[in-house]
Amino acid sequence: MLTRTVISTLFLAICCLTTAEAQLKIGLRVGASTTDIDPSDLNIIDNGASQLSVALKEARYGIHGGLVVQAKIGKFLIQPEFLFNSSRVDYEVTDTQDPDLPVQIKEEKYQHLDIPLLFGAKFGPLRLHAGPVGHVYINSSSELTDVEGYEQKFDEFTFGWQGGLGLDLWKLMIDLRYEGNFSKFGDHITFFGDEYKFDQSAARFLFSVGFMFGK
């Protein structure tokens, strides 16, 4: 319900902007992201005893791409975006009951629809912008399902924020942004019926290029 409300609100805002005295452009953008996080390990407990240790080994590059709508009124900008985002992480799983067993490396992939709503200003070719971003869960696959007791429960919708700068050269857009999130990294992890999450929120650096249509 919340997801539909947010998306409907964005579409309503776009429709209002088309009737206002705004210069409206639509474009496409693609890019990559890196995750910035170094959390403490998870200690998985069952029946009062430590069973597993789960550590973040590596957060790999993510990719994103999709639609950009930009409304310009003077120097002021409103820019909603609808971007498909795919990310991948590797976990190290250690059996604390038998430390002689080799450490297992488990890969997890997940996809979201990212919906930034950016507000900013344009000074010549330079853009400055910031605003909230919603993440709509789409799908995931995880090798952690091979580990006894594991389940995953992703929230349907989570919030964060983005801020950064952009450079416009003709119809090309070059963007560099920083993203923070209000939820903890790994908060979808469940072992033996108990929910776990790492002690930090994930942050990302995002780089993208785009092409805008229109004058």
Please describe the topology of this protein.
Elements: H1 2-19, E1 23-36, E2 42-46, E3 49-59, E4 62-73, E5 76-95, E6 104-123, E7 126-142, E8 150-152, E9 157-169, E10 172-181, E11 189-191, E12 194-196, E13 203-213
Antiparallel strand pairs: 1-4, 1-13, 2-3, 3-5, 4-5, 5-6, 6-7, 7-9, 8-11, 9-10, 10-13, 11-12
Give an overview of the whole structure.
This protein has a single domain (2-213), classed as Porin (Beta Barrel), CATH 2.40.160.20. Helix content is 8%, strand content 66%. The chain has one helix and 13 strands; from the N terminus they run H-E-E-E-E-E-E-E-E-E-E-E-E-E. The strands form two sheets. Strands 1-4-5-6-7-9-10-13 form an eight-stranded antiparallel β-barrel. It is elongated.
What are the segments in which pLDDT stays under 50 over at least 5 consecutive residues? Answer: none
Helix segment tally: 1
Q: So, CATH architecture? A: Beta Barrel
Class by SSE composition: mainly beta
Features of the shown structure:
66% strand; 1 helix; mainly beta; Porin; 13 strands; 215 residues
What's the short version?
The chain has 215 residues and is mainly β. The chain is built from one helix and 13 strands. An eight-stranded antiparallel beta barrel has the order 1-4-5-6-7-9-10-13. Strands 8-11-12 form a three-stranded antiparallel sheet, with no helix packed on it.
